[in-house]
């Protein structure tokens, strides 16, 4: 057999084997056996010295072509087999992606704190200061400076925990306002404050009563504050806390520390005013007390009521939380059952 | 206050105004109407019946078989179990198919074999409350007037063709605690003038009150005005239906004609009256004075009261016959035999009445009115009206004249206000004409001159005494809905949280991130719990009148409240609990009767149960000391405190595990503690192994802080060396690591404990502590020689000072 035929046969045989190979080791063995120094192609080239000068380049070219073809095919097969190997490995690593992830344990902020902070942030954005005060108060600040002298019939409205004749657990956060008004220097600007905090009433605990609860009260005092300012402020407030579509309405009421006094209803966020169990069919929910600061309250704090005036408002975060989330028992807020505390995760 | 809609129609036409519309309008303009009740709602087929005969049921000892004319051709047979049923009576009959109160349906039926076509009803069965039903009918059926027509609906006979408005009256609007007051209010809302019928009183010209009684008032402040009339030859009887109906629907039980009239006048005028049996007073001298301490008095409810000098009493010159404004006496009350009535109409000191009614727990229609105030303009008119009604209904004769001491303030009060002031407070542009019209609707006569109003306030509106009160009147009648609304325009100032508030919020955020949920526990607790886990000495602060021992004392620690919370959870099978609380504790610094308490902000936490739950990847892991300590360390690191924090073993902290508790120090100041609670405490709170901390948050807030300054990111690599030390087991990590820091030279940046071993492989009484030391030079690459030098120095020093063996 001449060299040309030998080369042709070699090529055909090699190509076939390489085509058929299915793993990288066998492929490498084939590469060594065909292209290696002891391989048949080297052997053919070695036989070239016996050829004529005329034949030698032709066979040489043919031999090169055979080597290139084999090399190219080996490379292609190598690439294919490597990809297959990777794909197989990835397939082997496949997970059940529906298995649960590792739990991240994060604590929850108390729902009352969430509500109070939301209110604080709104009023801070409107230039109010957040001011706190003692929870154990003097009768003078809790009552007398709020225009509730001893034996005032309205003192019955809030039964009080007394510690001594003069010292008591505050029944509202209003004494903070009295203390702040006393200190405020109006030459440095108006007084705009919000006082959140814990308050106490002498009540038996049941689903709707708690001897301990919370209040947030606001106060603005300046030279030209009107009831229209109060109405506008409470509208912003109602929309922020209960949704953009909310409306408010004012109803006359009575608080010793404001005159005029109004109760503020917010249109029901559950039924949009159509009437439901939350609003007891009226379409409105009573949520706030407010009014124009009583001149006696200003005067007792040393503020000239003929020059300065303002408004005050107050609400109970406990009641807001009960309405907003449908909580049916106020005691949940203070028993701290983790199944209760962890229900208020969604921050929207 | 229950207001009858029908009663209002006696003062003006209510055409076109439904009870519900009236209720809504009143709520929006001045007085909250809590409910509007249609009395006949849910009731049907209840008619007048005339009992023709009543014979005992043969098979029963208490039933009667009655033949009743119910307006049909044939009498109807009804079996009745009431003890007071008798022939000739006009009664309430529920016909077959009727609905009575409680949505009960009445069917035709048989009772012990006898046909019964319906039921003869008691007042309870048509919706009357037990406490307003006259005693005579409390246990049986009710009797209708003899002229009631059989077959007619009973509702008009019982005043049930009416709606009742339930008013919730705030302390400032006591003027609406009377029908006339409500009429003025409704008139103002709808711009109508109420008409009151003139009272005609015929006095006996030949007999004068002076022949009967002389009144003396010891102190005019106790009773500024005291009057008495006398009505003789009265016949005590049951009141007519109209009067009984009015009282019952207003929530008052009819007693007899004279007492009912005093209550009727109380409802109409808001003026409490008291009727004495004149003959049983046994005197011509009435003296109003303060009671003597310990003086005894038998009130008409049969209770003997021991009086004090807070109480004003009416006396017959010797002994009390009434607690002024609160309750009369049993021995002088009107009884069936009463012939002569002494009728008191007076004003009493509100504070004294309030104290008296509170002291004896006697809140009555009369005391609540005296407490809140009385229309001084109608004291005498109310008395006249009552006398005239007693003459009419009890067939008595009113002797001429009134015995009176003192005077009521009956003239109007004048108050000035300007238009500008009204609009300035309300933010409105109301005109002078509108304001005058509003005052006119309220019945205030007004003179206006260039925006200045001189307003005359009648005595029936004693709540109005200052400018602001008038502004409120204008605002509510004008309508709050018509008020403009906008945000205040003031000199602008930035609003922001104080540093204190910001730190508290950051603390919340950190602890929640660490897996603890925020708890809010009760401040009031037991004396024992209040004084547990205390961080400084203080007397406990107790309430004067606690609701219970469990809520009697102000807390001086947060932990006992949190442990209560853990108990609550564990009892409900929530065994994995991680909670924190931020709040105040209350210490006494000085005499609490003089000064405020020292309120200190604290932060505390509890962890119990698992910190990692068993799941498909992880084995469960119980919480332990170091889990909690990690939380505390991280929290303290988050404040950027200037001084160093250290932990010192605390072997004698009450309630805490003696070997697993550390005091937390900031520099030399003790901040608080952390550790495991004592097994005894575990038992007390019925909880498992629980780890806790409590710190004085205020001290942290007030402590010096390090500002954050950017540190260049190192350009050069750091080098690490490990060292394992065999040391005496008493030597603590904090000592070793601090010592290594001191000796490690300027390139030592970190010392990290990575292993502790104690056990078989090493000798008893020793432990192996392994640390990684990290060296770094910010200026240049460290050489091996530099690190080796420093490392060797540390090793040498450790051997010298702690006698360690380097392993
Ligand atoms: Zn609703």
UniProtKB/TrEMBL annotation, chain A:
<dbReference type="Pfam" id="PF02912">
    <property type="entry name" value="Phe_tRNA-synt_N"/>
</dbReference>
<protein>
    <recommendedName>
        <fullName>Phenylalanine--tRNA ligase alpha subunit</fullName>
        <ecNumber>6.1.1.20</ecNumber>
    </recommendedName>
</protein>
<comment type="subunit">
    <text>Tetramer of two alpha and two beta subunits.</text>
</comment>
<dbReference type="InterPro" id="IPR022911">
    <property type="entry name" value="Phe_tRNA_ligase_alpha1_bac"/>
</dbReference>
<dbReference type="GO" id="GO:0000049">
    <property type="term" value="F:tRNA binding"/>
</dbReference>
<dbReference type="InterPro" id="IPR002319">
    <property type="entry name" value="Phenylalanyl-tRNA_Synthase"/>
</dbReference>
<dbReference type="InterPro" id="IPR045864">
    <property type="entry name" value="aa-tRNA-synth_II/BPL/LPL"/>
</dbReference>
<dbReference type="GO" id="GO:0000287">
    <property type="term" value="F:magnesium ion binding"/>
</dbReference>
<keyword id="KW-0479">Metal-binding</keyword>
<dbReference type="InterPro" id="IPR004529">
    <property type="entry name" value="Phe-tRNA-synth_IIc_asu"/>
</dbReference>
<keyword id="KW-0436">Ligase</keyword>
<keyword id="KW-0460">Magnesium</keyword>
<keyword id="KW-0547">Nucleotide-binding</keyword>
<dbReference type="Pfam" id="PF01409">
    <property type="entry name" value="tRNA-synt_2d"/>
</dbReference>
<dbReference type="GO" id="GO:0140096">
    <property type="term" value="F:catalytic activity, acting on a protein"/>
</dbReference>
<dbReference type="GO" id="GO:0016740">
    <property type="term" value="F:transferase activity"/>
</dbReference>
<feature type="domain" description="Aminoacyl-transfer RNA synthetases class-II family profile">
    <location>
        <begin position="111"/>
        <end position="323"/>
    </location>
</feature>
<dbReference type="GO" id="GO:0006432">
    <property type="term" value="P:phenylalanyl-tRNA aminoacylation"/>
</dbReference>
<keyword id="KW-0963">Cytoplasm</keyword>
<dbReference type="InterPro" id="IPR004188">
    <property type="entry name" value="Phe-tRNA_ligase_II_N"/>
</dbReference>
<keyword id="KW-0030">Aminoacyl-tRNA synthetase</keyword>
<keyword id="KW-0067">ATP-binding</keyword>
UniProtKB/TrEMBL annotation, chain B:
<keyword id="KW-0963">Cytoplasm</keyword>
<dbReference type="InterPro" id="IPR005121">
    <property type="entry name" value="Fdx_antiC-bd"/>
</dbReference>
<dbReference type="InterPro" id="IPR045864">
    <property type="entry name" value="aa-tRNA-synth_II/BPL/LPL"/>
</dbReference>
<keyword id="KW-0067">ATP-binding</keyword>
<feature type="binding site">
    <location>
        <position position="472"/>
    </location>
    <ligand>
        <name>Mg(2+)</name>
    </ligand>
</feature>
<dbReference type="InterPro" id="IPR020825">
    <property type="entry name" value="Phe-tRNA_synthase-like_B3/B4"/>
</dbReference>
<dbReference type="GO" id="GO:0000287">
    <property type="term" value="F:magnesium ion binding"/>
</dbReference>
<dbReference type="InterPro" id="IPR036690">
    <property type="entry name" value="Fdx_antiC-bd_sf"/>
</dbReference>
<dbReference type="GO" id="GO:0140096">
    <property type="term" value="F:catalytic activity, acting on a protein"/>
</dbReference>
<dbReference type="InterPro" id="IPR004532">
    <property type="entry name" value="Phe-tRNA-ligase_IIc_bsu_bact"/>
</dbReference>
<keyword id="KW-0820">tRNA-binding</keyword>
<dbReference type="Pfam" id="PF03483">
    <property type="entry name" value="B3_4"/>
</dbReference>
<keyword id="KW-0436">Ligase</keyword>
<keyword id="KW-0648">Protein biosynthesis</keyword>
<dbReference type="InterPro" id="IPR041616">
    <property type="entry name" value="PheRS_beta_core"/>
</dbReference>
<dbReference type="Pfam" id="PF17759">
    <property type="entry name" value="tRNA_synthFbeta"/>
</dbReference>
<dbReference type="InterPro" id="IPR009061">
    <property type="entry name" value="DNA-bd_dom_put_sf"/>
</dbReference>
<keyword id="KW-0547">Nucleotide-binding</keyword>
<feature type="domain" description="B5">
    <location>
        <begin position="410"/>
        <end position="485"/>
    </location>
</feature>
<dbReference type="Pfam" id="PF03484">
    <property type="entry name" value="B5"/>
</dbReference>
<feature type="domain" description="FDX-ACB">
    <location>
        <begin position="714"/>
        <end position="807"/>
    </location>
</feature>
<feature type="binding site">
    <location>
        <position position="469"/>
    </location>
    <ligand>
        <name>Mg(2+)</name>
    </ligand>
</feature>
């Amino acid at each position: 057999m001449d060299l040309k035929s030998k080369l042709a046969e070699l090529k055909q045989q090699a190509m076939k084997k390489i085509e058929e190979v299915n793993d990288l080791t066998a492929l490498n063995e084939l590469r060594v056996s065909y292209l290696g120094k002891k391989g048949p192609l080297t052997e053919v080239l070695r036989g070239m010295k016996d050829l004529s000068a005329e034949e030698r380049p032709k066979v040489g070219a043919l031999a090169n072509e055979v080597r290139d073809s084999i090399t190219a095919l080996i490379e292609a097969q190598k690439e294919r087999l490597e990809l297959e190997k990777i794909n197989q490995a990835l397939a082997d690593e496949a997970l059940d992606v529906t298995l649960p992830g590792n739990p991240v344990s994060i604590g929850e902020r108390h729902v009352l704190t969430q509500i109070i902070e939301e209110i604080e942030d709104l009023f801070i954005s409107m230039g109010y200061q957040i001011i706190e005060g003692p929870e154990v108060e003097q009768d003078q600040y809790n009552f007398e400076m709020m225009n509730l002298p001893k034996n005032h019939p309205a003192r019955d409205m809030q039964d009080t925990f007394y510690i001594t004749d003069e010292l008591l657990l505050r029944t509202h956060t209003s004494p903070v306002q009295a203390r702040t008004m006393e200190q405020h220097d109006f030459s440095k600007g108006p007084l705009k404050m919000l006082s959140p905090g814990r308050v106490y009433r002498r009540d038996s605990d049941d689903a709707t009563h708690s001897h301990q609860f919370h209040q947030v009260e606001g106060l603005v005092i300046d030279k030209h504050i009107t009831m229209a300012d109060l109405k506008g402020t409470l509208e912003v407030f109602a929309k922020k806390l209960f949704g953009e579509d909310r409306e408010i309405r004012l109803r006359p009421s009575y608080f010793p520390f404001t005159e005029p006094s109004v109760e503020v209803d917010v249109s029901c966020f559950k039924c949009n005013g159509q009437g439901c169990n939350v609003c007891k069919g009226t379409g409105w929910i009573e949520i706030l007390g407010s009014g124009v600061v009583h001149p006696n309250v200003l005067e007792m704090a040393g503020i000239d009521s003929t020059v300065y005036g303002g408004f005050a408002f107050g609400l109970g975060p406990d009641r807001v939380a009960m309405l907003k989330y449908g909580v049916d028992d106020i005691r949940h807020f203070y028993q701290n059952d983790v199944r209760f505390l962890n229900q208020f995760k969604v921050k929207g | 206050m229950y207001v009858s809609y029908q009663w209002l129609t006696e003062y003006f036409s209510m055409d076109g105004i439904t009870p519900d519309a009236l209720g809504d309008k009143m709520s929006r303009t001045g007085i909250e109407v809590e409910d509007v009740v249609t009395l006949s709602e849910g009731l049907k087929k209840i008619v007048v019946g005339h009992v023709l005969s009543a014979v005992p049921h043969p098979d029963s000892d208490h039933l009667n078989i009655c033949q009743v004319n119910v307006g049909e051709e044939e009498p109807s047979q009804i079996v009745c179990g009431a003890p007071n049923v008798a022939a000739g009576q006009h009664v309430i009959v529920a016909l077959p198919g009727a609905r009575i109160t409680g949505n009960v349906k009445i069917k035709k039926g048989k009772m012990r074999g006898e046909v019964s076509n319906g039921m003869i009803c008691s007042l309870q069965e048509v919706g009357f409350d037990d406490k307003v039903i006259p005693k005579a009918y409390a246990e049986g059926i009710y009797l209708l007037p003899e002229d009631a027509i059989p077959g007619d609906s009973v509702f008009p006979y019982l005043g049930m063709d009416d709606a009742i408005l339930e008013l919730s009256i705030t302390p400032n609007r006591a003027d609406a605690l009377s029908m006339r007051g409500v009429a003025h209010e409704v008139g103002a809302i709808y711009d109508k003038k109420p008409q009151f019928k003139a009272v005609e009183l015929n006095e006996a010209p030949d007999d004068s009150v002076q022949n009967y009684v002389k009144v003396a008032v010891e102190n005019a402040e106790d009773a500024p005005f005291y009057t008495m009339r006398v009505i003789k030859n009265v016949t005590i009887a049951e009141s007519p239906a109209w009067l009984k109906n009015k009282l019952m629907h207003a929530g008052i039980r009819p007693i007899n004609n004279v007492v009912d009239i005093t209550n009727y006048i109380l409802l109409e005028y808001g003026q409490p009256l008291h009727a004495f049996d004149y003959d049983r007073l046994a005197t011509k001298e009435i003296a109003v004075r303060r009671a003597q301490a310990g003086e005894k008095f038998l009130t008409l409810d049969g209770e003997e009261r021991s009086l004090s000098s807070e109480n004003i009493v009416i006396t017959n010159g010797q002994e009390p016959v009434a607690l002024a404004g609160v309750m009369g006496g049993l021995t002088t009350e009107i009884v069936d035999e009463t012939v002569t009535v002494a009728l008191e109409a007076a004003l009493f000191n509100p504070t004294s009445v309030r104290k008296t009614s509170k002291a004896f727990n006697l809140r009555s229609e009369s005391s609540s009115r005296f407490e809140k105030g009385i229309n001084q303009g109608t004291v005498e008119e109310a008395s006249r009206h009552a006398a005239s009604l007693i003459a009419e209904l009890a067939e008595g004769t009113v002797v001429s004249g009134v015995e009176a001491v003192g005077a009521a303030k009956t003239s109007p009060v004048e108050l000035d206000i300007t238009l500008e002031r009204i609009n300035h407070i309300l933010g409105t542009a109301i005109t002078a004409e509108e304001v005058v019209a509003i005052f006119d609707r309220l019945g205030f006569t007004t003179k206006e001159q260039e925006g200045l109003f001189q307003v005359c306030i009648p005595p029936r509106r004693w709540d109005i005494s200052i400018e602001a009160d008038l502004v409120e009147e204008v605002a509510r009648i004008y309508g709050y809905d018509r008020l403009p609304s906008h945000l205040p325009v003031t000199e602008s100032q930035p609003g922001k949280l104080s540093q204190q508030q910001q730190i508290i919020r950051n603390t919340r955020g950190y602890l929640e991130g660490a897996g603890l949920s925020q708890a809010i526990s009760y401040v009031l607790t037991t004396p024992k719990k209040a004084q547990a886990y205390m961080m400084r000495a203080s007397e406990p602060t107790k309430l004067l009148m606690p609701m219970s021992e469990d809520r009697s004392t102000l807390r001086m620690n947060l932990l006992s409240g949190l442990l209560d919370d853990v108990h609550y959870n564990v009892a409900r099978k929530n065994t994995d609990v991680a909670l924190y609380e931020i709040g105040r504790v209350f210490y006494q610094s000085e005499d609490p009767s003089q000064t405020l308490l020292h309120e200190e902000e604290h932060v505390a936490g509890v962890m119990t149960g698992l910190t990692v739950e068993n799941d498909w990847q992880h084995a469960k892991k119980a919480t332990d000391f170091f889990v909690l300590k990690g939380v505390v360390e991280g929290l303290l690191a988050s404040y950027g405190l200037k001084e160093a924090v250290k932990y010192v073993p605390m072997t004698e902290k009450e309630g805490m595990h003696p070997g697993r508790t550390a005091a937390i120090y900031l520099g030399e100041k003790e901040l608080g503690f952390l550790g495991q609670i004592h097994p005894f405490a575990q038992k007390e709170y019925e909880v498992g192994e629980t780890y806790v901390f409590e710190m004085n948050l205020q001290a942290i807030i007030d402590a010096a802080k390090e500002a954050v300054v950017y540190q260049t990111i190192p350009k050069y690599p750091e080098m690490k060396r490990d060292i394992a030390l065999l040391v005496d087991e008493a030597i603590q990590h904090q000592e070793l690591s601090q010592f290594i820091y001191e000796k490690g030279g300027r390139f030592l940046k970190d010392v990290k404990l990575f292993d502790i071993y104690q056990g078989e492989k090493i000798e008893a009484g020793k432990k192996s502590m392994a640390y990684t030391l990290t060296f770094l030079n910010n200026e240049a690459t460290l050489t091996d020689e530099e690190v080796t030098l420093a490392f060797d120095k540390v090793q040498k020093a450790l051997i010298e000072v702690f006698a360690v063996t380097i392993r």
